């Protein structure tokens, strides 16, 4: 660039500054359209945030967007939110999903079409599944669930699958060895998303064995991070919207 | 089970044997329908198989199913296959995908609808992307690609995305830090599948950093195993079929 | 499958649905016989379950099966269980095994034959060993134990082995470097199952060093997961039943 | 020990020396009986040994014990052995198991009773399975096998299980996600030994995912090291001998 | 050394002792100049220290050096410090940085020139960023910050960068997938230091994914340890001093 | 977003498409200025690229940019490049750095000011250091080196440091325990960049121990990936340019 | 062994039993001399033991051996011990070492000769160092210490070394990057034992980086487990006894 | 430092430069005495060095020091050395240790007293043991060895120990589970150094299981890096010299 020597260093530096500012101005205008582009609800991860700071972020979001979801709440997060809740903001607590929904209006989420099926191997996997359900519903999908169908016996899996088969996409949450997603993927012809859950113990018991098993599976599976109910729900909703976009 | 003492051990053992056989008989009839259910092509992973054994498996498969794909071939696998190829089996070598397709007839794969977009960050990610493309095409999807759009400059990404946006689903293959899938997921509202590629070096350079980065992403992404072009292609095809099933 | 073009997509989709439902119906009938087939007691892992949910699961199980075991109980689990215990359910608390047994009748577990020997290297390994013992006893085996024979001096090991040698199978629980199982396997001609215990500290001190050492052993050993007393006990009982099946 | 001060340091040192020698003399007499105690064949791991040194070890072993097995041979090991083979030593090459058996006599291994069933998920797992078979046969067991029953379709598994069910113990070798052992363990009431095989790729593809999955399994499984056909075969033979000892 | 045999062992040993003492004397004089050489403030890591011991170390340091900083304080550390604070020592508590500054005089830190820009991807990364800011300010730099510019939308990043671009060096703190530093490094021509933050969850969620991603980045980045605000701040100050040394 | 129901789905979808295209158009114009902004030379990583494809990429780059560098070349890469080299492209082979420089003109890289000092602990670290040197020189810096000053004795380090001290920034490459960067950082008051090198053996011997040691260092160090000579050189050049920008 | 068929199975089994018992009898007599042979004090690791069980083990040990040490005590362990302490047992609490010594008599440990030097890099490493000191003193060695000589400045190291140089062996405890042991090993000609301490944070901050760094060191070092003050002290005492055995 | 404002920046900078130079001058004089201080032979690690560069380093070393050792030689290293060997340099090739010794004179290494015992578990551990032996002999110690005493039967261990017991220190090399060092440490009262060897396979089979097992051992052991024969030999020689220093 400076190689031809025709531009002095000062000139080059000045030009660079100019270019950079212009670039940044251009780009700043772009991102405003992001939430429209990607169709995601506003979701705040409570875990790791100070309760007060968390509550303020939530209230700012609901003012701006009319509706806002928080996941992985501790009781302290919930208390901080309750203490600050203005009268015109509605709060819905989804205990099983460790989540809350704030909204300024009464309208439900408008349906966008598409059905998401969610299964869990055991009862310990249910909070992660419920987080996925909440997100998929917030994105306008119908959700059907069948929980504890891995541990309680494979006959429950099959009777459950009969009800779920019309779904557009399957989320399967499983801890320990994490094989239920692969079994489901071998029985249905729709996309199956595996969610490893941190419910094992001992060697790679924090969900790593389940993650590894799903990644190595001979079945066709896509996976998300350990305990990542939010990502699974949002990805599944994107898939489920598929046939309804046109 | 033996607890009530009403059944002698011998009786119980006999009953068990009977039950088990009956169960197995029932189950054996079930699996025959599997390939119909899941809509996958027959795919053989050449890597790790003796060339001769590999060639025999392939020929048996093509006889049984009319069409058969092999991935991750070494030159030795290819030679063994060529040496044994009967005159009535057609062999198509896809070098960029390190794959071959055997078939007994001339009909192309019938289109099942749906479009899959495949992007790569760099040129080293192309073989994995080509493996994904081959599988998606074998499953009846249209595939559009844009390779080397991460390293060569983000402007190539954007001009590429304009062409690809009508796609039903995106596959994004990336090595090293593996951030391209998250960037794409922030710009499109369709499902994005990240494929970590083993093209880095140093710390976690065998694709592990890319895998971890994709799993941790704040964007909505699902991932497959490192270098798992086959899984990405088949999963994407399942997603792309979505709107065309009814 | 769709390749020959002779079946329209609609026909194929309809056939698929039919096949799938039929398959599932067939399979659902199968699993009912599972607990009979495998001869396992009903065991609930308390760890990671909400105390109330845990108590409800236990009571449902004991109603259905007449007898039910829970392992890895916290005091909260125990309290929740006690608070809900109906008068017709007997509860036996095995403190050393961190376990309880619920039963609706008074009959003891009927003996199925076979003797399991259980050894531990140190005193910290005893809870895991006691969990194994409980399961083996629930499966109708006689159990003999020799605890703390690794740390307290090898002479205790040898005098213990003299008492234990008639056993059909040996379980050896050990933490830190986990070498006791290999030593026992070098002295007896019966199967030896190593159980790594999470009682070390520092580098790989959570049982990983013991697991690795047992897996690498030149002695003939099979291993179970770190702290997996349940699996060791159930596997050993299966081995011990061996000679008594006919 | 030196604490009471009644023994001078010199006296103590002298006593120690004496005690130690006496101890060692006593112990040396003990180990001679080891191979009798544990009932193992003499097995040499060729891998990692210089071909010449390997051949010499083998010939020394067969002279001393009449029969000797070597596993994991390279062609170089085989050549070195052939070049040195005396006329009175018989060599049997088991190619599928990457093994040889040397013997000085013609008698076959005397049967000790017991049947071992060996299954593999795919064709790549066969060498490990064959190593296990060889060892179990060398220990006097009958062996029945069913290979490639995981990948080629679950119906093959069930028809295979019907033939194998009378076995005393099952060895199941599987790579990638390694779930076949758990499936088998859910269907039979005999002990099942999982052998993780290094046939995957990508994240934990060297058998680690299979190992983790087997250790985390909700089914009752014991496992051996990755690719450890020898250990699986010997352990299974010990189990199979069980009912025939009395 | 002893090889020529001309020096007796005793002589050699004596000479060695002498040499060693002399060497040590020489070296002891050297280190006194260290803090002058490296231009670092005195910083004490509170984490892992007993509160009382910590307080004593701090007071000794401030007496000796006139000014002293402590990072990663718990409330207990703070209490212990407050309880022992002599009237002539001023204590400034920087809550956001989990830090305190003790000083014996009133003079502010003299400016040494240079500007450090600090960005964070999310709000959870702010404590680490504030620790970096404190250190850079203690080293005489001007600091400008832009927090939460990754999660809240890329348009905030660009408007922030316009304000920060005159800075001499950039610190970018990010958790989860840790990609913000690479994005910044692609937009500015000044050195960018990535700080991985332990704010993720699941697989490599303790900052390891962010660390790996930054190390593998195709952008030009240098990194410091996970959560290492101190190191980032001090390194950045060294860079920022650069143009002002002459 | 669709929540107020005032926009029909079709309208929303249409608007989205429009927005997206517009956004992409805007962004595409931006990136063209990237290489100007960041002041990096064009560098191609040969490792992992097919020799022919590599050569074509290089020639395309040199045509476009006038000058182009490739690192980590194998002899095959070099041969492929030589075979395709047009007469008007000059090729300079830097063997010690495993690199080549292609250029279309004769002008040397114009100096941009700033001095980079590069040290290595041992001789095995030199190729990585030479890669760093090449990049820093390509970016217009003066480079001074002192190699093998860690292993050969600390007196060589000190005499080397005396020559290097006027440098603006230090790169220190070290394998095994990787402590030389921390020692240098304790002796100079300029920024020190540690480069872990994969020259150890045994436990974490592929550079991981050196990386961990540098990240944990109490000295103020920033690090780059294992063997990442390119990144170290480019980052150091950015630092060195610092004082010369105004 | 059973191969020649000359011994019936029954005979063989009987002989085996006999041999085994005899072996065990012989071995049981051997171990009684172990503590005499190895010269170790009786040491109980409190960590991971129930306070009551711990107290009972301690009291049994002190009765049997006259003197007994416990390390890694929590306040609960201490309380349990105090509550059960009989009047004729003396208890000495070494707070800095997190240890207690129980004894039934008044005699101090008789000196066995030898001097152990113990250094720490920082103040956080002192508890581990104190544990090592306690053990070495219990084994009759003189111990000299120099703490906090790494962080507080290398001049403190050198003045400390002058006092410590007559020692027979050096223990050096260090956390984070763990380089002090290598520095000491480069300055003294006596054996140096590195003890990694779990006082870092971030990547491999639990002592793993220090362990790796010590194992990779170019200096001649032997290491013990992370935080293993006991092992370091006992090993050092064995070395220090060296010259006094004759 | 600059805090009191009494020194201008220029003055301070000048003073710093002066101080630094003076410091470095002082330090440079110190290191010349290093090899005398530490009593190590000059040892060059051939692995990872270019054969030609390696040969030149060796010849420079032998000229300077009269004697020089190289370990881990490939045939290429050996050839390069032979091709350049001047007539006045003697070369001794120790094949079992993969080492050579160059010397300019005929005198053997003068004995410094002390005996080192070296044991190996198997035959694959011998090269590492021989490397240790070579170094200990070069440092003037007598060495006694007992190889293959772990795998071939524990009776060989005990008869071997009887011969080795007068040794001052024991080196025990073992791969796979690495338990032989702990067994030896339980039988002798002299220091035992464990050397993990990379001779296993499967999970942590590259020596990591052996390393972990030795670090976790309840016996008193110090360890060195995987395959680190050099370090073990040099450390053992330092211990063995102990009683002969006075």
Automatic annotation (TrEMBL), chains A, B, C, D, E, F, G, H:
SUPFAM superfamilies xrefs: N5-CAIR mutase (phosphoribosylaminoimidazole carboxylase, PurE)
Query: Which InterPro entries does the UniProt entry name for this protein?
Result: P2CMN_synthase_LarB, PurE_dom
The residues that cross the membrane are none
The cross-references to SMART domains, in alphabetical order and at most eight, read: AIRC (SM01001)
Domain (PurE) ranges: 114-245
Its protein name is Nickel pincer cofactor biosynthesis protein LarB
């Amino acid at each position: 660039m400076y190689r031809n020597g025709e531009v002095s260093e000062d000139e080059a530096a000045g030009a660079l500054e100019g270019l950079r500012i212009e670039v940044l101005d251009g780009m700043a205008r772009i991102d405003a359209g992001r939430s429209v582009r990607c169709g995601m609800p506003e979701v705040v991860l409570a875990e790791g945030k100070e309760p007060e700071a968390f509550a303020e972020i939530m209230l700012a979001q609901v003012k701006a967007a009319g509706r806002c979801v928080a996941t992985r709440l501790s009781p302290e997060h919930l208390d901080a939110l309750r203490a600050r809740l203005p009268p015109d903001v509605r709060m819905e607590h989804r205990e099983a999903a460790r989540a809350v929904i704030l909204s300024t209006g009464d309208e439900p989420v408008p349906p966008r079409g598409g059905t998401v099926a969610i299964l869990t191997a055991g009862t310990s996997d249910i909070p992660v599944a419920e987080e996925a359900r909440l997100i998929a519903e917030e994105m306008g999908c119908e959700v059907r669930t069948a929980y504890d169908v891995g541990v309680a016996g494979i006959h429950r899996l099959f009777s459950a699958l009969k009800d779920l088969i019309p779904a557009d996409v399957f989320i399967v949450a499983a801890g320990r060895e994490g094989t239920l997603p692969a079994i489901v993927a071998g029985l249905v012809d729709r996309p199956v998303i595996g969610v490893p859950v941190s419910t094992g113990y001992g060697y790679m018991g924090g969900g790593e064995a389940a993650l590894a098993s799903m990644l190595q599976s001979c079945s066709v599976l896509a996976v998300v991070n350990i305990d990542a109910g939010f990502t699974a729900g949002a990805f599944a909703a994107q898939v489920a919207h598929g046939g309804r976009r046109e």
